[in-house]
Automatic annotation (TrEMBL):
<dbReference type="GO" id="GO:0005975">
    <property type="term" value="P:carbohydrate metabolic process"/>
</dbReference>
<feature type="domain" description="Glycosyltransferase family 28 N-terminal">
    <location>
        <begin position="202"/>
        <end position="356"/>
    </location>
</feature>
<dbReference type="InterPro" id="IPR004276">
    <property type="entry name" value="GlycoTrans_28_N"/>
</dbReference>
<dbReference type="InterPro" id="IPR050426">
    <property type="entry name" value="Glycosyltransferase_28"/>
</dbReference>
<keyword id="KW-0808">Transferase</keyword>
<dbReference type="Pfam" id="PF03033">
    <property type="entry name" value="Glyco_transf_28"/>
</dbReference>
<dbReference type="Pfam" id="PF06722">
    <property type="entry name" value="EryCIII-like_C"/>
</dbReference>
<dbReference type="GO" id="GO:0016906">
    <property type="term" value="F:sterol 3-beta-glucosyltransferase activity"/>
</dbReference>
<dbReference type="InterPro" id="IPR002213">
    <property type="entry name" value="UDP_glucos_trans"/>
</dbReference>
<feature type="region of interest" description="Disordered">
    <location>
        <begin position="128"/>
        <end position="159"/>
    </location>
</feature>
<feature type="domain" description="Erythromycin biosynthesis protein CIII-like C-terminal">
    <location>
        <begin position="499"/>
        <end position="627"/>
    </location>
</feature>
<feature type="region of interest" description="Disordered">
    <location>
        <begin position="101"/>
        <end position="120"/>
    </location>
</feature>
<dbReference type="InterPro" id="IPR010610">
    <property type="entry name" value="EryCIII-like_C"/>
</dbReference>
<feature type="compositionally biased region" description="Basic residues">
    <location>
        <begin position="145"/>
        <end position="156"/>
    </location>
</feature>
<feature type="compositionally biased region" description="Acidic residues">
    <location>
        <begin position="128"/>
        <end position="138"/>
    </location>
</feature>
<protein>
    <submittedName>
        <fullName>Unnamed protein product</fullName>
    </submittedName>
</protein>
Length: 752
């Protein structure tokens, strides 16, 4: 038996040779082994000519092997010659197509979109017969559309491995920078992103206003392409969202309470063992998580309860694609229920990498890759799943009608197991994309909401304080809740006076003024757009939120971060590593002396020069545009489009005909006499298979096809195996937790 994979085909041919007569000719052997012929051609087609899978003679004593090997060598030479001929043919076709494109460029015009219903009905089958096909395998794959018709051929290109790809004449966006994947070959650096037809998109966000604001920019960009976009987040942001012309839906939970709890516990996944925390805070947090989960299903499937006016429902809504941040939790489950694609977007790392640790793990961010960084993501996922498993399973079974995820059933890694694409919204100039992230994960740049800062009118006192001497140092803690705002403000004033700098303090959810006497060198303001304010300051001191960090760096200002929890320590280390900031200091360790030293260091010309250069690089990025391109690139468009009208999104499926329809085509089909609507059901473009359900599905299928006695027996066996799997899952969870805890000991020397 040959052990190497390259000789797998040779073994198959040996089996054919053993069964065949020794007098068979080469042609008859090929005829009998048609399937192996196709497999061999595929191997040779995907291998360079000089690296054929059949290159050396096998060490076999069987007398049939020399004859077989000689014939395989002949096949090898034949296919190498065929390979070269195909390559030359496609190269000539490519050159001819380029010439044809140049000649037709001046006369090319977009096909008229305003078709009448009658013309559409008569041309539906004609469009279907044009012969669209796809190499798409599921979420996270690229659309490779090929069209064969008598119409003028659109632009095409020939790849180095003899694949001829044709992009259909649809609106296209510029390429997005990405690492090559299985569907984008190394020689194909210009991957084209196809804009999908108009659809209904739901964006679900849990967090502070700084978390919501970037997604508002993405929603407005999607609206420019004709999509109906709903932004579902906490109800206190309704006015903020609707003021930008974006549809709103209220999610459960209070972001102020969530932020206060995170500040109180330091963002730890395991809360401190205090009686007040365990009796009051933890139950309240679990209640809010349940409220958030319960509200995600109507967010993607129901009208806004206060859409037109308070108490007046808005128009019906059913999401055809979902964008969410990972902490919303219900995203993957409602996407599974609807059968629609899901795309995760977040301004902090959330998938395993050795480059840096999980922001919630409290591991220090160091320069060199470490194994424990990768393991920190596994540990955080495990702890989060153990804390929310009961809520999630109740939501799946009682609200969505989906099967529960069994104990140890990999529910903590559903996003990874189902290959859900992620877009990370930070600047690659600040934190480059990790080398161990594949094509499924994109770093799209900083996403900012370009507000009309020209409409902001500052007070005369603020304008006078900003002055023309480079500006004061900005200090603001955004949506963070301070335990003692008065003491913090006094510390800022004392440190500023000792460092002899002017300070501009911004209040948000915490009143920073109080009853203190404010000196002339300090000015306190309320709400003010950062894109107007920060460029007029000399440096920034803040809590380290992703949005505020990006705003300060886009203004070209040196940064000092005072982290509270979560990803804020990560950004504190990131600005230091980039050479544009001062070493971060947690809010619990901040003193007047440390703040004074930071104020003085922020005036360094070196930091200002580095921050100015980073600003130039970041200003070339368009995070919202790249985020939308990443979203489009990962959509399974072939499965989402209507089979008859490719400008429509499929919503119905005909079980009799095996055809998917958009609403427009379905209306035409219903209008035709003799059509039975009973065979038409809701269409699901993505089929999510929850981990841990394979056994149950197999048991149900087997029992349905077996005699009654066998069905009962198989059902009993299935339950017994399920119980064993449950026990094994519990043991595995405990063992993994212990192993990860050992490998990711937070106070030990980094793993080499």
């Amino acid at each position: 038996m040959v052990a190497t994979d390259s000789w797998g085909l040779a073994v198959g041919f040996a089996d054919v040779e053993t069964r065949a007569s020794s007098r068979l000719t080469l042609s008859s052997t090929l005829q009998d082994s048609k399937q192996f012929f196709k497999t061999l051609f595929w191997r040779l087609e995907h291998s360079p000519p000089h690296n054929s899978p059949i290159v050396c003679k096998p060490a076999q004593s069987n007398a049939t092997w020399p004859v077989l090997f000689e014939r395989l060598q002949q096949l090898d030479q034949l296919f190498q010659a065929w390979h070269e001929q195909l390559r030359a043919l496609f190269t000539r076709q490519h050159q001819q197509q380029l010439e044809q494109d140049v000649n037709e460029a001046s006369a090319a015009a977009e096909r008229a979109r305003g078709k009448s219903v009658d013309a559409t009905a008569s041309g539906l089958l004609d469009e279907l017969s044009d012969g669209y096909s796809s190499d798409e395998d599921g979420p996270g794959e690229h659309s490779t559309l090929r069209r064969h018709s008598a119409k003028p051929r659109p632009r095409s290109k020939t790849l180095s491995d003899c694949h001829l790809e044709v992009n259909c004449s649809r609106k296209q966006l510029a390429p997005i920078a990405a690492k090559p994947s299985a569907k984008i070959h190394v020689g194909d650096s210009q991957a084209v992103v196809v804009r999908p037809p108009a659809m209904q998109v739901c964006i679900m966000i849990v967090g502070t206003r700084g978390d919501v604001q970037p997604f508002l920019a993405i929603a407005k960009r999607l609206q420019q392409d004709g999509h109906r976009v709903r932004l579902a987040t906490h109800k206190i942001y309704r006015d903020f969202v609707t003021s930008h012309g974006v549809e709103f839906y209220p999610l459960g939970g209070d972001p102020k309470e969530l932020a206060a709890y995170m500040v109180k516990t330091g963002g730890r996944l395991i809360p401190p063992l205090k009686l007040e925390t365990l009796q009051k805070d933890v139950p309240r947090q679990m209640q809010m998580l349940e409220e958030i989960l319960q509200s995600t299903w109507p967010a993607v499937s129901a009208p806004d309860p206060d859409g037109s006016a308070p108490g007046v429902h808005g128009s019906p809504f059913r999401a055809q694609a979902i964008i969410s941040n990972p902490v919303t939790m219900g995203h993957i489950h409602v996407a599974e229920k609807l059968g629609v694609p899901l795309h995760i977007m977040f301004p902090q790392p959330w998938v395993p990498t050795v480059a840096f640790p999980h922001p919630m793990s409290s591991l220090p961010y160091q320069d060199k890759p470490q194994r424990r960084n990768y393991l920190s993501y596994k540990l955080v996922d495990l702890l989060m799943w153990e804390g929310t498993e009961r809520l999630v399973n109740t939501f799946r079974s009682d609200v969505l009608g989906l099967p529960r995820i069994r104990k140890g059933g990999r529910g903590r890694e559903m996003l990874l197991d189902l290959d859900i694409p992620h877009s990370f919204m930070w600047s690659p100039s600040l934190v480059p994309k990790p080398f161990d992230w594949g094509d499924l994960y994109d770093v799209v740049g900083t996403v900012t909401l370009k507000a009309d800062s020209s409409s902001y009118t500052p007070s005369p006192e603020l304008e006078a304080f900003l002055g023309h001497d480079g500006g004061p140092t900005f200090v603001g803690f955004g949506s963070m809740v301070l335990e003692d705002p008065r003491a913090t403000t006094k510390m800022i004033i004392d440190a500023a006076q000792q460092a002899n700098v002017r300070v501009l303090i911004q209040s948000s959810w915490t009143d920073m003024a109080g009853d203190l006497d404010i000196p002339d060198s300090v000015f306190i303001i309320g709400n003010c757009p950062h894109d107007w304010l920060l460029p007029r300051c000399s440096a920034v001191v803040h809590h380290g939120g992703a949005g505020t960090t990006a705003g300060g760096l886009l203004a070209g200002k040196p940064t000092f971060i005072v982290p509270f929890f979560g990803d804020q320590p990560f950004w504190g280390r990131a600005v230091v590593k980039a050479g544009v900031g001062v070493d971060p200091c947690p809010i619990t360790e901040l003193t007047t002396e440390k703040l004074r030293a930071a104020f003085e260091e922020l005036q360094s010309p070196f930091l200002r020069n580095r921050a100015h250069r980073l600003r130039k690089r970041m200003q070339k990025e368009d995070g919202a545009e790249e985020a939308v391109r990443s979203f489009y690139r990962h959509l399974p468009l072939r499965r989402m489009r209507c089979d008859l009208d490719h400008e429509g999104m499929a919503t119905k499926w005909s079980r009799r005909d095996g055809v998917k329809f958009c609403e427009r085509c379905n209306a035409i089909r219903r209008a035709c006499p003799g059509n039975d609507c009973k065979d038409v059901i809701e269409y699901r473009s993505v089929d999510y298979a929850a981990r841990g359900q394979e056994l149950a599905n197999m048991t149900r299928f087997t029992c349905g096809a077996s005699p009654p006695g066998a069905a009962v027996f198989l059902q009993e066996v299935g339950w017994a195996i399920a119980c064993l799997n449950h026990i094994g899952g519990v043991v595995r969870d405990i063992s993994q937790f212990l192993l990860l805890s050992c490998f990711t000991s937070w106070d030990v020397v980094p793993v080499r």
